[in-house]
Amino acid sequence: MINQKDLKIRILKPGENIPYSLLLLADETREGINAYIHDSTIFVVEHQDEMIAVCATVMKDEEGMEIINIAVREDYQNNGIGYWLLLEIIKKAREQGLSELIIGTADCAEKQLYLYQKAGFRFSRVIKDFYIRKYPMPIFENGIQLKDMVILSITL
Ligand code: ACO
Ligand code: ACO
């Protein structure tokens, strides 16, 4: 069991290596990540000096922010860290005075859809065929082809 008191969250400093191995858990390709990562704020979570989770956010407009990538190292998953990290990001967005936080995931990503709703996000809209257009090859999760992106939002 992970003690949440041992988790530290901080913003990645300029010049530090971008944690691609973590980011690639939530995005299929490095090119895909490069399309947004340089405009993102990158939060990293450390446990006993090891980097075990990441969350990249981008501003959508003056009052709205998107969690564009969130990932927990595989050997640390299902220990409540993703949930803890979502609540930390929501708290920081509130402290920043933002009004809305959004997050998108695949239509068939049942764990993510469950977790985001548990953290307070609600279904907002669907971007049809997002994953069909984004990737040259069909991608499958839980035996279902990824097709649409579901956007969830939380009013802060
Ligand atoms: N279906 C439904 N719920 C599930 C499933 C499942 N197949 N598997 C696990 N769960 C539940 C767990 O029981 C737990 O809920 P509970 O605590 O109420 O029992 C919850 O899902 C998982 O919660 P955490 O342990 O807090 O989550 P974790 O630390 O594993 O982080 C995350 C979640 C970030 C999705 C992690 O699994 C991960 O890195 N996955 C790979 C990358 C990814 O898919 N990232 C999100 C892509 S979308 C985006 O980046 C915007
Ligand atoms: N999360 C994700 N998948 C699950 C879960 C879960 N918690 N529990 C079971 N499953 C999977 C099973 O593994 C199975 O998938 P698989 O065959 O790929 O392994 C699938 O869900 C269930 O498939 P079936 O066995 O064909 O479904 P079933 O005969 O149980 O019928 C139904 C489903 C109609 C929803 C039934 O469970 C039911 O009557 N539930 C109560 C009433 C209800 O909720 N009805 C729908 C309300 S909406 C409406 O009526 C329009």
TrEMBL record:
Name the InterPro entries for this protein: Acyl_CoA_acyltransferase, GNAT_dom, NAT_camello-type
Instruction: List UniProt keywords, sorted A-Z.
Output: Transferase
**Protein name, per record:** GNAT family N-acetyltransferase
* Record-annotated membrane-spanning stretches: none
**What domain of life does the UniProt record list for this protein's source?**
Archaea
MF term (GO), any: N-acetyltransferase activity
The N-acetyltransferase domain is annotated at: 2-142
Native species of this protein?
Methanospirillum stamsii
- A Pfam family cross-referenced in the UniProt record is Acetyltransf_1
